[in-house]
């Protein structure tokens, strides 16, 4: 019996699917194009908050990213860093509580401040990774100098003027965590006891899980996925990796949508044919 | 005594940590702070123990000839990164080069593989077989359209539909989950504190 075109389509070689997906990701990287976006209220809220920072305000970043999740969350941190590079006197402190990779990503993001003429130890610092997860966050919240006696290079933090602005969590104006998991430990250890404004920059798949914390007011903002990075870049007026990767994200997802539609059409035609035959 | 002493330690430390969250007495706060510091030290050691364990397990694999090539790659990778970090420092250009040129792209590549599996699964398996699957399918299409910016091209108010989905049905479900897991965590904590739950001590029921 001759195989129908529906059956042929349903049993299509997976290498064809992989090939089409590869092209969908590659083409926008080789030939970049702009994706029109409307800035959402959640991104605007974070931007307005940082735009209102005063000299001496401390913004802390926890780079809880691994190499795997960084392509989605790291562009958010870059966009925020570009915004902070324009602010005078704001103190930027980077740490990592989740992965030993964190300081590497912090260094990459801090290059933006260095290129903007900011001084290490005065305007920004990288304190490195501290193991212990929630216990480490709680300990650092009580006494930053005890939890981080040296910076990422092993230098005594007492020599850096920036650390005069940061003794306990109560000195933090805004705390960012870039991660592919939920920010509940920071809400528990920084937000609730010290009133720190916690804002997560998370991968898009995590946003529905984080939303209850944002909705209840435990989070001061929420930046989800590559789109949030692209929106933030629109606000700062500096196009970076977030907007650059949106083309690949768009075309890859359109491909998945097309696959979904074809797969469903084939399923329903096949179902109807089987019913008619019976 | 094999279980009694660890259970007693767990009970005392657990009660101390709970007290620290509710009362503001300097002695208690100082003790809590000290215990948290111990926690950080123990976690740092645990990272080291984890690395040693990995080397032992994969060393055994190489000895027995089981997945030799993968185990060898892992041990060589650990050794190279370890010596680069110790010899040149983790802020050195050598270590940064290794991380930026090997670790980061390989990690991203592992994550990126998902795109191919999702594309294949979307084509073959993600079909509207019943009501549940149809709801899931429609929701995922709305999320994709929003995240890529395509939704707003279709209609400027498309975002409202996405946010309604997130803020009403999703939020209700997530809150239920959060409350249930919190209650579960409290009951497990009580069981551990009073010594009923001893799985963490290696006891098999």
Short account of what is shown:
With 278 residues, chain A is of the alpha/beta class. Chain A is built from 11 helices and 6 strands.
Characterization of the model:
The complex is a heterodimer of chains A (278) and B (205). With 278 residues, chain A is α/β, with parallel strands linked by helices. Chain A has two domains: 5-31 and 247-277; 41-239, Rossmann fold, CATH 3.40.50. Helices cover 53% and strands 13% of the residues of chain A. In chain A, β2, α5 and β3 (124-129) form a beta-alpha-beta unit. In chain A, α4 packs parallel to α5 and α4 (70-85) packs parallel to α10 (225-236). The relative contact order of chain A is 0.16. With 205 residues, chain B is mainly alpha-helical. Chain B has a domain at 126-198. Chain B has helices at residues 4-22, 26-64, 68-88, 93-124, 131-147, 150-154, 158-193. Chain B is extended. The mean pLDDT of chain B is 89. Classes of the chains: A alpha/beta (278), B mainly alpha (205). Chains A and B meet through α2, α5, α6, α9 and α10 of A and α2, α4, α5, α6 and α7 of B.
Name the pair of protein chains with the most residues at their interface, and give those residue counts.
A-B, 65 and 58 residues
Please give the share of residues in helix of chain A.
40-55%
What is the CATH first-level class name of the largest domain in chain A? Alpha Beta
- Subunit organisation of the chains: heterodimer
Report the order of strands and helices of chain A: HHHEHEHEHHEHEHEHH
- Give the strand order of the largest sheet of chain A, numbering strands 1, 2, ... along the chain: 3-2-1-4-5-6
- Sketch the topology of chain B as an H/E string, one letter per element: HHHHHHH
Q: How large, in whole angstroms, is the Cα Rg of chain A?
A: 23 Å
How many structural domains of chain A? 2
> What is the tally of helical segments of chain B?
7
Nearest-angstrom radius of gyration of chain B?
25 Å
Estimated structural class of chain B? mainly alpha
How would a crystallographer describe the biggest sheet of chain B? none
End-to-end C-alpha gap of chain A: 16 Å
> How many β strands of chain A by DSSP?
6
The number of strands of chain B is 0
CATH topology of the largest domain in chain A: Rossmann fold
């Amino acid at each position: 019996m001759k195989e129908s075109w529906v059956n042929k389509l349903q049993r299509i070689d997976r290498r064809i699917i992989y090939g089409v997906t590869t092209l969908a990701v590659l083409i926008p990287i080789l030939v970049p194009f702009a994706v029109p976006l409307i800035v959402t209220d959640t991104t605007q809220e974070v931007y307005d908050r940082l735009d209102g920072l005063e000299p001496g305000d401390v913004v802390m970043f926890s780079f809880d990213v691994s190499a795997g999740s960084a392509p989605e969350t790291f562009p958010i941190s870059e966009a925020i860093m570009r915004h902070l590079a324009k602010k005078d006197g704001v103190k930027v402190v980077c740490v990592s509580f989740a992965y030993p990779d964190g300081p590497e990503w912090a260094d990459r993001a801090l290059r933006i401040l260095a290129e903007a003429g900011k001084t290490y130890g005065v305007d920004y610092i990288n304190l490195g990774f501290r193991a212990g997860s929630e216990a480490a966050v709680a300990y650092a919240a009580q006494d930053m100098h005890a939890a981080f006696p040296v910076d990422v290079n092993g230098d005594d933090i007492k020599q850096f003027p920036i650390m005069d602005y940061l003794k306990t969590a109560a000195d933090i104006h805004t705390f960012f965590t870039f991660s592919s998991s939920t920010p509940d430990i920071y809400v528990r250890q920084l937000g609730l006891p010290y009133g720190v404004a916690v804002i997560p920059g998370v991968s898009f798949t995590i946003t529905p899980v984080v939303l209850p914390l944002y909705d209840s007011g435990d989070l001061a903002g929420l930046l989800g996925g590559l789109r949030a990075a692209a929106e933030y870049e629109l606000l700062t007026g500096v196009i970076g990796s977030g907007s650059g990767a949106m083309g690949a994200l768009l075309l890859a997802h359109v491909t998945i949508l097309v696959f979904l539609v074809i797969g469903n059409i084939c399923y329903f035609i096949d179902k109807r044919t089987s019913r008619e035959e019976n | 005594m094999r279980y009694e002493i660890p259970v007693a330690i767990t009970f005392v430390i657990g009660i101390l940590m709970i007290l620290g969250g509710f009362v503001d007495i300097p002695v208690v706060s100082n003790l809590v702070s000290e215990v948290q510091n111990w926690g950080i030290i123990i976690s740092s050691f645990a990272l080291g123990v984890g690395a040693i364990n990995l080397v032992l397990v994969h060393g055994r694999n190489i000895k027995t000839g089981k997945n030799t090539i993968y185990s060898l790659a892992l041990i060589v990778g650990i050794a190279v990164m370890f010596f680069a970090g110790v010899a040149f420092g983790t802020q050195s250009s050598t270590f940064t080069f290794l991380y930026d040129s090997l670790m980061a792209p390989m990690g991203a590549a592992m994550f990126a593989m998902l795109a191919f599996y999702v594309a294949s699964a979307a084509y073959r398996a993600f079909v509207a077989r019943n009501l549940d699957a149809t709801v899931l399918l429609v929701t995922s299409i709305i999320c994709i359209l929003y995240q890529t910016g395509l939704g707003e091209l279709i209609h400027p108010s498309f975002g409202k539909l996405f946010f309604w989905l997130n803020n009403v049905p999703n939020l209700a479900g997530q809150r239920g989950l959060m409350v249930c897991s919190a209650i579960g965590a409290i009951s497990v904590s009580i069981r551990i504190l009073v010594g009923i739950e001893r799985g963490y001590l290696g006891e098999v029921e």
